[in-house]
Design brief:
This protein is mainly alpha-helical and 495 residues long. The protein has helices at residues 24-46, 54-72, 77-90, 92-110, 113-124, 127-145, 148-166, 170-187, 192-201, 205-233, 242-252, 261-271, 276-294, 296-303, 310-322, 347-365, 368-379, 383-400, 404-421, 426-438, 448-457, 461-464, 469-483; strands at 325-326, 339-340. It has two domains: 11-93 and 346-493, no CATH class; 110-336, no CATH class. It contains 23 helices and two strands. Strands 1-2 form a two-stranded antiparallel sheet.
Length: 495
C-alpha cells in the first residue's frame, strides 16, 4: 500500500492465468506444502531466526512444488519463468524504497534526527496515552501522504524508538503504528490501493471512500478504545529512568529542534505528490548534511579519521547510508536504539520479497490463483456467502500470491459479475476488497507488505500481529455488516 508513485507497474493491468486442466485440489497442493514447511520451520526449527534465510528457501521449495504441479498440468517451464520475472519486476519500486529507507534511517540516526524525535517525544508522550497517540499520529500522516509505507518509514521508526526508551512493548507499538497507518492509507485518495479497488469493482473513487467509512470508522474506534485500555494498564517501567535516558541522549547527540526541519520537509514533499523515492533520497541527503552540521564528532568517529576532513566526512556519511553503524552511549538500554543497518540492513527483507514473488509467480502461471478464487466463489450462494467468499479469496491470495495487488485484482475481476447478479452496488465489492485484501497483507510475513513493515520497524509479524487490531478486525467488521445487512447498498440505491 504504497502511494501511487512507489510501484512503477500499473496494478490494474494485472492478468489472471486460467488453466482448465488444473482442479482445486491440485491448486492447493503447493499451499499446503508451504504452510506445513513454514509451520515446522518457525515453530520447531528456527523460531525467531526463521526470517534469516530458511523461510526464504522454503518459499522457493513451495515454488518448486507448484512447478511440478504445473508440469503435470501442461504448463511450460518458460511460461512459469515469465510469470516469475513479471512478479519480481513488479517489486522494483518496493526494493528501491526499502534500500532508501535503510539509507534514510542511517543518516537520520547519526544526524540526531531520530534521537531528537525520541528526546522530545519522551517528554510529551507518556505511557498512558502513547499507544493511542501512535494510532492518531500515523493516521493523520498516512491520510496526508496516502502511504502507510512512508508513514512507518518516518514517524513509525521514531515512535518505535520512543517506545523502546519508555519500556513499552515494541509489538504493541508496531501494531498501533500499523493500525493508524493503514486506516489513513485506506481513506486517502492518494493511495494506490484506494484507487485500485473501485477500478476493479466498477465504482468511482469518492463513492468508494465514503462507503468505506461505514466499516472503517467503527473498526478504528474499537482499536483506539483497546489501545486506550491497554495504556491505562501499562506499568511505566521506562518512566522512572526517563531523566537518565534524556541525559544520555543529550550526552551522545547535540539535540536541537531545528533537526525537525528534515522530516517536515520530507513529509511536505510527499504531500505535494513528490515521488516517494525522490523524497526519501532528499531526506537521506538532508540527513547527511544535518549530521555534518550538528554531529561532526559522530561523523568523524564513523568515518574513522583523526580530523573531520573531506575524506572522513565522506566515509562517515557513506557508512551510515550503506552499512551497520552505531553511536556510543553511556546507557546500555540505548545501545540498540542508537544503531542502524543502512541499506545492508534491508537485504534480508529484499531477499524474502524476491522469494515470495517467485512462489506467487509460479502459482499464477499454473492457474492456481484462478482455481482457488473460482472454487471459493462456487461455495456460497447467499448474499452473506458472497461477501464471505470475497473475504476468503482476498485472505487466500495474500497468503499464496504474497502480493496485495493480486489480492485486490483477482477477486475484483472474479466477483464483479456475481455482485451485479445479486443486485449489489459495486461499492460493496470495492469496500470488501479493501477491508480484507489491503489491510491484511501486512499480517503475512512473506507478503511484500508484511516483509516491508517488519523490516522497517524492526518488529516481527508474529510480535505485532495481535496488536495490529485495525488490520485483523477489518474483515470481521465487513462480515458483520453483511451478516446483519447493515448498509448493504443495492444497485438501484447506488449514487
Amino acid at each position: 500500500m504504497q502511494s501511487q508513485d512507489i510501484d512503477p507497474r500499473e496494478p490494474q493491468d494485472e492478468h489472471i492465468v486460467e488453466n482448465k486442466e488444473l482442479n482445486i485440489w491440485e491448486a492447493l497442493i503447493p499451499v499446503f506444502a508451504v504452510v506445513i514447511m513454514l509451520f515446522y520451520n518457525v515453530f520447531y526449527a528456527f523460531g525467531d531466526d526463521a526470517l534469516s534465510g530458511s523461510n526464504q528457501f522454503i518459499l522457493l521449495l513451495g515454488a518448486a512444488v507448484a512447478a511440478i504441479v504445473g508440469v503435470f498440468n501442461k504448463v511450460g517451464f518458460e511460461q512459469m519463468l515469465s510469470e516469475v520475472a513479471e512478479n519480481v519486476q513488479s517489486t522494483t519500486g518496493a526494493i528501491l524504497i526499502l534500500l532508501m529507507v535503510g539509507s534514510l534511517a542511517g543518516t537520520w540516526m547519526i544526524s540526531g534526527i531520530i534521537p531528537t524525535m525520541i528526546y522530545y517525544g519522551m517528554q510529551v508522550l507518556n505511557p498512558t496515552i502513547f499507544l493511542a497517540s501512535c494510532v492518531v499520529i500515523c493516521a493523520i500522516i498516512s491520510i496526508a501522504t496516502g502511504s502507510s509505507w512512508t508513514t512507518s518509514a518516518t514517524v513509525g521508526i521514531a515512535l518505535i524508538g520512543i517506545a523502546d526508551a519508555l519500556g513499552i512493548s515494541l509489538g504493541m507499538t508496531a501494531g498501533a503504528v500499523l493500525s493508524g497507518a493503514y486506516f489513513g492509507d485506506k481513506l486517502s485518495p492518494l493511495s494506490d490501493t484506494t484507487n485500485l479497488a473501485p477500478a476493479m469493482a466498477g465504482t468511482d473513487l469518492f463513492t468508494h471512500i465514503r462507503y468505506m467509512t461505514l466499516t472503517t470508522v467503527p473498526t478504528i474506534s474499537v482499536a483506539l478504545i483497546v489501545f486506550i485500555i491497554i495504556g491505562l494498564g501499562l506499568e511505566p517501567e521506562g518512566v522512572a529512568d526517563t531523566a537518565s535516558i534524556l541525559n544520555s541522549i543529550e550526552g551522545s547527540f547535540n539535540i536541537s529542534p531545528w533537526l525537525f526541519l528534515v522530516p517536515v520537509i520530507v513529509i511536505l514533499m510527499i504531500i505535494k505528490k513528490t515521488p516517494p523515492l525522490v523524497a526519501l533520497l532528499v531526506g537521506t541527503l538532508l540527513g547527511g548534511a544535518a549530521a555534518l552540521i550538528f554531529q561532526p564528532e559522530i561523523v568523524q568517529t564513523i568515518g574513522g579519521g583523526e580530523t573531520l576532513d573531506f575524506k572522513t566526512a565522506y566515509k562517515g556519511i557513506m557508512n551510515a547510508i550503506t552499512v551497520d553503524t552505531s553511536v556510543a552511549t553511556d546507557n546500555e538500554a540505548l545501545s540498540d536504539l542508537f544503531s542502524a543497518g543502512g541499506m545492508s540492513g534491508m537485504l534480508g527483507t529484499i531477499w524474502l520479497i524476491i522469494c515470495a514473488m517467485v512462489f506467487g509467480g509460479v502459482m499464477d502461471a499454473i492457474g492456481a490463483l484462478s482455481a482457488i478464487s473460482k472454487a471459493l466463489l462456487k461455495l456460497f450462494h447467499t448474499t452473506f456467502g458472497l461477501f464471505a467468499s470475497t473475504v476468503a479469496s482476498c485472505l487466500a491470495l495474500n497468503v499464496t500470491a504474497s502480493d496485495q495487488y493480486l489480492a485486490i485484482v483477482v477477486p475484483g475481476k472474479m466477483y464483479a459479475k456475481a455482485y451485479r447478479e445479486k443486485g449489489l452496488a459495486p461499492e460493496n465489492l470495492s469496500r470488501t476488497l479493501e477491508d480484507s485484501g489491503t489491510v491484511t497483507s501486512v499480517l503475512v510475513p512473506w507478503n511484500t507488505c508484511g516483509a516491508y513493515q517488519s523490516g522497517v520497524l524492526g518488529v516481527s509479524v508474529a510480535d505485532y500481529f495481535f496488536y495490529a487490531i485495525f488490520n485483523w478486525l477489518s474483515p470481521f467488521m465487513t462480515l458483520l455488516f453483511a451478516a446483519f445487512s447493515i448498509k448493504i447498498r443495492q444497485l438501484r440505491e447506488s449514487k
